[in-house]
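Figure S7 source data.
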Amino acid sequence: MDESTFISKNFKPKGGKIICESPSNIALIKYWGKYGLQFPINPSISFTLSNCKTITSIEYCPRSKGQERFNFLYDGKTKKSFENKIGKFFNRISSFCPYLENLFLKINSKNTFPHSSGIASSASAFSSLAFCVVSIEKRYNEKMTEQNFLNKVSFIARLGSGSGSRSISGPLMIWGENEFHSESSNFFAVNFGKKIHSLFKNYQNTILIIDDKIKHLSSSDGHKKMINHPFLNDRKNQARNNLKRIINAISNGDLQVFIEVVEEEAMTLHALMMSSHPPTVLIKSQTLEVIKLLKNFREKEKVPICFTLDAGPNVHLLYPEKYKLKVIKFIEQKLMHYCQNNLFINDSIGLGTKLLEF
Ligand code: DP6
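Tokens for the predicted DP6 complex:
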């Protein structure tokens, strides 16, 4: 396969309106480091989330000569930083979606999670945008199968944000070439599609908001720090090996291995940043306090809970649904005061992008 598979014919759509929603996702094996146009240096696998999502609506109509391409509002208000990112995104995807040149798009998007939660929203933002854009194409291309549609949505979302490629479907998505999953590709993410042990049904993800500020290092800058990283090759081997281990653990319900791998991946991501040039620390002392308390709780109460981290200080707790009440009680009693404004967000695994109106 090559990228030409994703080039659409040009056509001139009539006006219309589309609304869709797309969730965030949490990586178990981390995508960290990229090359070329948003290709990952190693494969990653993630749980799709359910409550933390972006809702995007696009009203579109034929574009007149000289008219701008789009207008963007975030929750009804202008937001320059987003607008610039979306402009770059449209430039990147224009050769794959040439019909966009014929349209003026009025885009409005909003998130279901609090503005100031410090949760990265690029995955849900770009996957919802990609879903809207490729849905317009699908209307004019009767030959596009459902699978081709999902692949292209993921491909286009990837060009906006790598992790966004994994929000399209669920509950488990895999992205990046590897020898353990033959359909997994660098171009787009696919549904894991293999046996998932019943223990993982409705798996819970509670996000402890340790810091609600916007990250001081963007993901893009973090990825760049991997290019000349002294441990780059070791990292590639580790990710490959961890992918193999987690695929088996997920199929067999081996929570011990699952916990080991997920936590190793989270700590490695931060260890790689601390050992990069110049060293960068993205976690806070509260992150480490919470991790320590979590491990004590796990041992003492025999609850198979683990943590993972993205490129920031917030802690994602992952655990089977049957322990939900016990975990929430533990959070309220011991962890909540480490969170900014006592904020934590309950989520669980979900099925990906959804069309709301077209
Ligand atoms: C640490 O997808 O946000 O969350 O491709 O530059 O948009 P860009 O990066 P992004 O990186 C996510 C990194 C991560 C790990 C992961 O989600 O796999």
